[in-house]
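Researcher: Quick sanity check before group meeting.
Model: Go ahead. Protein one:
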Amino acid sequence: MTGAHMQLAHAQRGLGMWGWLVVLSVIGFFAMVGLQLTPLYLNEMKVYRVVQATAKDPSAQQMQLPELRHAMQTRWDVEDIDLVKPSDIKLVTTMGGGKALAYDYEARAPLVYNIYVLVHFQHKFAMSSAGGND
């Protein structure tokens, strides 16, 4: 074998120990971030379902905000929602003059030491006899 062939064969061996260490570190970092974010998104899915169901309820159109929050509290307890409270849900007026239930909150998950991942959740659900999502 000539020198050029030996260099080519040596260069095509694949990842070495340090290369694999870098690849596994990157995969581990993203797995850790994913594991920390999963509970935040699961909680958000519960909040979304409860607020959407309340907005779709035809009787909710005639309720005032304290009554709406009280109606949501039972579902909140059943779903075990802990990052946001029914008191954080707002009753807003839509562009067309209708009413909507809305929320806007941030949730944090610790990564390492004093480094956190911050996620912002915001939704608005139009209240009508048919319900809906703006």
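Researcher: Fine. The other one?
Model: Protein two, sequence then structure:
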Amino acid sequence: MTGAAGGMRILHIESSKNWGGQEYGILEQIRWLVDHGHEAAIAAPHDSEIVARARTWGLPAHPVDFRGSFAPKAIAQIRRLVRSGRFDVIDVHGAHAAATVGCAADLCRVVRSLHVYQPQEKAVLRRLIWRWGCHHAVVRAHCVKDQLVALRFKRAEDITVVGSWAAPEFFHDDSTGTERSGVRAEWGMSPDDILVALVGMLRPDKGHRHFIGAAARYLKTRQDAFFLIVGEAPAAYREYEAGLRRTVGRLGLDSRVIFTGYRHDVARVLRAVDVAVIASDGVEAQPRMVAQAFAARVPLIAARVGGVPELVVHRETGWLVEIGDEAGTAAALTDVLSNRSERERVAAQARRFAERELTLDRKMAETLAAYDAGPRRPRGQV
């Protein structure tokens, strides 16, 4: 399945107007495809962040009017796009556009990408959309694949697991320590101050309240660390962010917990911290933060949520704690920060794993193979 010059033609579709790790990852994929001789574009709402940023990145972007699961205007727009662009594959991300895009499955191959792990409704319509609306599925974790198979939404052979990756900039090393000192200088810290970071969109399932609770517990016995909350809240979660800030104030942690807002230099910030934390309590498959921390040689403490244990092996590539366990997270922080040789050993093993398994090149090779895998037409029976 190739275009005129030997490359594939892939149309990525995202119906969300927000901007987060999923949307950033889609543009990373499109840029990689274009750089490697393929034709690729994004189709999304005209007022979405991903369309605006795609244009900033110099990537092809097509506005589509997504309104409802079976939007006639969007169906017509997608069918015209497929015909005019002669796309070989549609890669539709998430659930909201899946039904609409499924109406173009007679024109080209449709692959559905699922980035999160959350309960799926066992509804007849949902099952039909999975069976008839896509030829193949690409999911971010084995737990997601197992769920789809158990629900009989898709056969195992029609699902490919392509986990998260770290972009090349996360593999750069801060050998001179300039990033460490530079990041701390932004907030008036010394190069020796300890930094602990949680990176991700500010929304409830990311577990920021657990992170703040763990910080409070840790700081009761040790006053040697600062805690960064890196990311911004979408418009729908501005009150959630305000509530987090109120909690920080009520706990008297204003000088120790820092909200950085959205950062364009996440790789630089991450390389400068001493420990990264994933405190999520829902929807995670394989969070991008796992691969990024591994690549950056940053010790990682992660909640045992979704597909996280598929990558984080306790005391081998990171430290696992139970979901919502603030005391356990604080204890793990004390453990990690008290034993330099142990944290360096674990971080080095995680880095080697990332170099072998979690590069963008490797994951895109797996994705391209998935685009050409399985049946030519969607299967209606499982």
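Researcher: One line on it for the slide.
Model: The chain has a mean pLDDT of 92.
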